[in-house]
Amino acid sequence: MLPKSYLVFKWTVYALATLLLFGLQSLVLDQLHPFGLTPFLYPMLPAVAAMYEGSRRGPAFALALGVVCDLILSGPFEGFFTLVFTLIGIVSGVVAENAISPGFLCGLVVSGGALLGTAGMRILIHALSGGGYLALMAQIALGETLITLPAIVVVLPLYRVIHRRCASDY
Amino acid sequence: MKNLFTKYGLMLLSLAAAVAVILSVMAFFATSSAAFPNLAGIIASPFRAASAAVTGKVGGWLDYLTEYDRLKEENEELKRQIAGMEETIRQAEYDRDENQRLREVAGLREQRRELSLESARVVKQDASNWESLLTVDKGTSCGVEVGDCVITETGCLVGVVTEAGYNWSTIRTILDSESSMGALVFRSGASALAQGDFALMGQGLLKLNYMGTDADVVSGDLVVTSGVGGYYPSQLVIGYVSEVGTGDDGLSQYAVITPQAEIPSLVQVFIVTDFTIVD
Lengths: 170, 279
Prior knowledge:
- The complex is a heterodimer.
- Chain A is mainly alpha-helical.
- Chain A has 6 helices and no strands.
- Chain A has a single domain (3-24, 38-169), classed as Arp2/3 complex 21 kDa subunit ARPC3, CATH 1.10.1760.
- Chain A is globular.
- The termini of chain A are close together.
- The relative contact order of chain A is 0.15.
- Chain B is of the alpha+beta class.
- Chain B has a domain at 180-260: Thrombin, subunit H, CATH 2.40.10.
- Chain B starts with 6 loop residues before the first helix and ends with a strand.
- Chains A and B meet through α1, α2, α3 and α5 of A and α1, α2 and β1 of B.
């Protein structure tokens, strides 16, 4: 297999897996409301992908995912997910390369960071625009992170299989 | 960690910032929905419809299994309500005739209330913890525009269209913390502002603010849209007052409203594409 076609194949499989996880969010997670909150899977995806793919390819995937999320989701401003997910991709890639080796623990750390980071950015924008209820928002951010983190048992194996299979093929 | 922001990382962040700026500029200048989000919405439409169909079907089965007794009781209660309402309708018909006669005697204009409605199916309940949005399967191709009001089949206010694509629209519900609308307490005529509140959004409630100190509002009062400014139709039911309190300043009053529309379980809504109201 040529490198270029290999890359196309790999990222196509990543895209299909991500589409599957989008389906998981809208068909399953959106219907669940543990403790009155809804799990929010999307920030976990660029974090886990970048953990496996590193700080060069990971952020590029995160950027593309951010653009898609900006087109289909509503954020505090247009381009919010593009910016935040790219940042998540860079940080997750660097953490996996320099601090914690890719695996369950690293996945948990970068996913938790991604979820808290995304919610934190929302709160920061809300605070900068003069909004109130910051303590309540922080509680929601923490709750959202805690109820979403268990979804790592689905995201992590799925992306790991793609990463390993594509790496071994090449 | 020293290479956290390498040249490559900074380049990608700059690219992300550029994309964000482009998306913002496109959204700012677009009269309906910007081109890319519109296209994404069109592509996502069949998936949303399929997803809504599947969740609707599964939800229906679950309801049948778990809520049969409750639905049976509700059915009995609704039958009793209908019996009561039939009596009210008979009285209203008598009152309407009398009102018409008196208007003719007094030489007043006839009251008119015409709403052009577009039926739409809810294809996505945006269950985010931060906003309260709905996506429906009708858009600019059916005359839907940003700012159109959205109601239920019984005329209860659901929200306002904030984004309109070719065959889809996003509705910001009255529960959303950015939602705000002129309102009236039906019994006393006290005017106020019905606003979504972040602390109440999760409980499915909203707030009635700017009522003044001596506003006549009690628990159980019906709250409707005021229609001030002609931007939204008047007399659309927002909900009932469930609590009255005093603001942090100790002077102003506020009320908590329980919306009449059951927003989390909506399947079909009606978009008010045009309206004529003569009071």
